[in-house]
Amino acid sequence: MQPSRQLKIYLLILLLQQTNGQNVRSICSPPPSPCDSASKYRSHDGTCNNLEHPKWGASYTIYTRLLPANYADGISAPPVAKDGSPLPLARLVSSTIHPTAPVEDKQLTLNAMQYGQILTHDMGVALNTTPPGIQTTKHLKKI
Questions:
Q1: Which of 34, 48, 77, 117 could form a disulfide with 73 if both were Cys (CB 3.0 to 4.6 A apart)?
Q2: Which of these is catalytic: 44, 98, 121, 139?
Q3: pLDDT per residue over 104-126, tens digit each?
């Protein structure tokens, strides 16, 4: 089944939002308030936890990519090798590099779960905005 034109446009808009995060941050984010380097405690919203970059890791700020998105079709298809062949599955690569038997450690498992939960909660409050000049999908009909 081929994706509809509206879906392709929607996915392209999402791609543009993700790759243009840096530009959006400079336009949408208010200037950071001065940080108190003598403060004994971290801030509740993540601002000023890094004195050189006060907005890094702050709530309601946009995540940026380290590298541009890499999709086979430019929109959503998984990337392929330079010769066009499919790339190996991530699980196969991981198990090939680390071929050890699983280690059962209830404390480590609990810590990993908590860390994952903290990450997802932090990502849940990341700002999701539309860059200036990009048409939103509000005009599209729901399928």
A1: 77
A2: 121
A3: 777 788 888 898 888 887 777 66
The verdict on whether 121 is a catalytic residue reads yes
137 within some domain: no
- Domain membership of residue 108 (yes or no) is yes
Q: What is the DSSP string of 44-103?
A: TTSTTSSSSSTTTT-TT-----SS----TTSSSSPPB-TTSPBPPPHHHHHHHH--PPP-
> Would 141 be classed as within a structural domain?
no
Helix H or strand E encompassing 122: helix 106-124
Determine the Cα–Cα distance for residues 65 and 58; give it in Å rounded to an integer: 16
Q: Is residue 136 part of a domain?
A: no
Question: What is the residue range of 108's domain?
Answer: 5-124
What are the tens digits of pLDDT across the range 23-43? 444 545 556 568 888 888 888
Predicted confidence (pLDDT) per residue in 39-68, tens digit:
888 888 888 888 888 888 787 777 777 788
Domains in the chain, number: 1
Which tokens sit at 80? 């392929």
